[in-house]
Amino acid sequence: MTSLVQQFATNFDHVRQINLETIRGFHTTHVLIALIKVGFFAELRQFQKVNLPEFARRQNLDLKILTSLCEYLYSIQILQHEGDTYFLDEKGELIDNLMTGPLLVVHAYENVFHNLEPLLRKQKKFGSDVNRLSEFVAGGSGTVGKSFAFPLMINFLRQGRYECVLDLACGDATFLAALCQEDQNMRAYGLDIAPEAIELGNCVLTRTGLQDRVKLLVDDMFNLDKTTHLFQGVDVVTCIHALHEFLEDGNERVISMLQKYKARFPGVPLVILEVIRPPLEELRERPGGMIDILLFHDLSGQALTSREAWKTLFQQAGFTNVKEDYFPTVRTAIFTLC
Predict the structure, then answer these.
(1) What confidence score (pLDDT) does residue 19 get?
(2) Cβ of 58: how many Cβ atoms within 10 Å?
(3) In whole angstroms, how far apart are CA 21 and each of 26, 244, 285?
């Protein structure tokens, strides 16, 4: 009997751990995303507390469902409460400070995971039948970038003493706004193919008072040969977490774009920041958040690749002077092409 009890306890511990990694994570993610989207966390950020009946009335929400969601987050120590008023617990503070961007990115790819079976069965195809939500890609990526990629690039540009930057695939212009706030002498242009991203970007610029120093354009960065004349005085061009999106069907399109860049911006350095795909065995040994990043990229036709593959691609595009700065802790590289 004792051995049976011990076996049950061992199995229960295993099941509990698996539950935390699967079912609990699934539910918690969806609850957090829903509350972010209805403005609950923005309200907490502004007032440090939310009265549920008053918030539900003002936002026209179902109070019973709102209460259930908040009680769920209270039970897993993300929220605290006094009666009907809720505020962030210590873990909730960390989520609000560090995880809002990643959660928005997860939501951006929700359609992909909802359609995972038909994609697997080849009944649907990403890009035609299933798409990501561009608005949340832009907003989420901008928020995520604030924690590492943007400060890294800003420091790089300031060391180079550049004065006017063109950012390719600029998203919601969070990077350009942060750059120009950090350096009062910097001017900037941003280019993105998604109108909703540029709309968000212009709101960011208006809110930060930078609309006179940063100009955004809805256009395709693969049309650089047609739009070069619009970017006067540019002395450096940046591209953050973007080129990998176009490698699924081979390197030819990116190589062609880089060749056009080299011809149209002679002598102007192109600074590319990309997440690097590590070997599979390294992922198993140290998965971190990289395994999730790789998964949604692979499912949506984006090809994160190795440092060696990037350098080979740059050489094929005619760039013989390539400098690499690699940051192994976060598996990120900055390539400077001259």
Answers:
(1) 63
(2) 11
(3) 8, 29, 17
Q: What does the alpha-carbon distance between residue 338 and residue 66 come to, in Å, rounded to a whole number?
A: 54
Q: Is the Cβ–Cβ distance between 111 and 62 less than 8 Å? A: no
Residue 50, helix vs strand vs coil: strand
Q: HSE of 82 in the Cβ direction (CA atoms, 13 Å)? A: 3
Q: What is the dihedral of CA 287, 290, 295, 297, to 10 degrees?
A: -160
- Is residue 103 classed exposed, middle or buried when 0-12, 13-18 and 19+ CB atoms within 10 A define those classes? buried
Q: How far apart are CA 213 and CA 263, in angstroms?
A: 26
**How open is the CA angle 72-74-79, to the nearest 5 degrees?**
125
What is residue 138's predicted lDDT score, i.e. its pLDDT?
Answer: 75
The secondary structure element, H or E, covering residue 161 is none
Tell the residue number behind the tokens 């540029």, with chain if given: 198
Helix (H, G, I), strand (E, B) or coil at 270: strand
- What's residue 147's pLDDT? 80
Would you call 39 exposed, middle or buried from its count of C-beta atoms within 10 A (0-12, 13-18, 19+)? middle
Please list, residue by residue across 211-236, b when 16 or more beta carbons sit within 10 angstroms of its beta carbon and e when fewer do: eebbbbeeeebeebeebbeebeebbb
The Cα–Cα gap between 164 and 235 comes to 6
Reported as a single tens digit per residue, the pLDDT across 169-217 is 998 899 999 999 999 999 999 999 989 889 989 999 999 999 999 999 9
User: Domains in the chain and their CATH numbers?
Assistant: 2-96 (1.10.10.10), 134-337 (3.40.50.150)
Highest averaged pLDDT of the listed ranges 111-115, 292-296, 300-304 = 111-115
Q: Could you read off the pLDDT of 110-159 as tens digits, one per residue?
A: 999 999 999 999 999 999 999 999 888 877 887 888 888 999 999 999 99
How is residue 178 written in tokens? 């942060």
